[in-house]
Amino acid sequence: MDVQVVEKNEIKVVGISWNGTYAQTNSIPEIFTEMEARINEVANQTRESVLIAPFHSRETEFTYYVTTPVEKIEDVPEGMIGFTIPRKNYVFATHKGRSEEVENTYLQMFKWMKEYGYELDQHALSLEIYKEEHKPFNSTGHLHYDIYLPVKKYKEI
Q1: CATH number of 69's domain
Q2: 17, part of any domain
Q3: pLDDT of the residue at 137
Q4: Does 38 reside within a domain?
Q5: Alpha-carbon gap, residue 20 to 30, rounded angstroms
Q6: Any idea where the AraC effector-binding domain is (predicted)?
Q7: What is the pTM of this model?
Q8: Would you call 127 helix, strand, or coil by DSSP?
Q9: Is residue 156 in some structural domain?
């Protein structure tokens, strides 16, 4: 797995939020289905064919969003939320494999971060980015998406 540090510019997004325990994560695919059904309600979408899933991870629960990037946040549809993800440095990798292997991908990224002296920024959003061209793989359970873990400080390696 190729891991690297990247900087992502500010991203404006509109989408659906979900909050729950780790035991409830099996309901997350439903949020993707709902967002895909309602995506045309979102005004000012960019030309990127992606779904961005920012999330806050906490000890006992987490908040997960399924969003689409927008040029500007206005006329947010009922039941959705709009917000800006600030410019940030991230440890980046791509997960390719079964859903059961996702945890291992994250563990490898955390190991890499520790080895190279990076610290996860607990106050920033982590991102999962799902590209339209990978949708056929993802629908079969063979997932293919990009993971961005926010870091506190950029270090040259």
Answers
A1: 3.20.80.10
A2: yes
A3: 64
A4: yes
A5: 13
A6: 1-152
A7: 0.91
A8: strand
A9: no
Are 121 and 152 in contact by the 8 Å Cβ rule? The answer is yes
Domain that holds residue 13: 4-150
Q: Hunting for tokens 């494999």 — which residue is that?
A: 97
Q: What is the pLDDT of residue 98?
A: 84
In a domain, 62, yes or no: yes
Q: How many domains does the chain have?
A: 1
Secondary structure of residue 74 in the 3-state scheme = coil
Share above pLDDT 90 across residues of the chain, in percent, rounded to a whole number: 72
Q: Write out the two tokens for 129.
A: 């980015």
Cα Dmax for the chain = 45
pLDDT above 90 for 100: no
Cα separation, 72 vs 83, whole angstroms? 10
Count how many Cα atoms sit within 13 Å of the Cα of residue 116 in the half-sphere of its side chain: 17
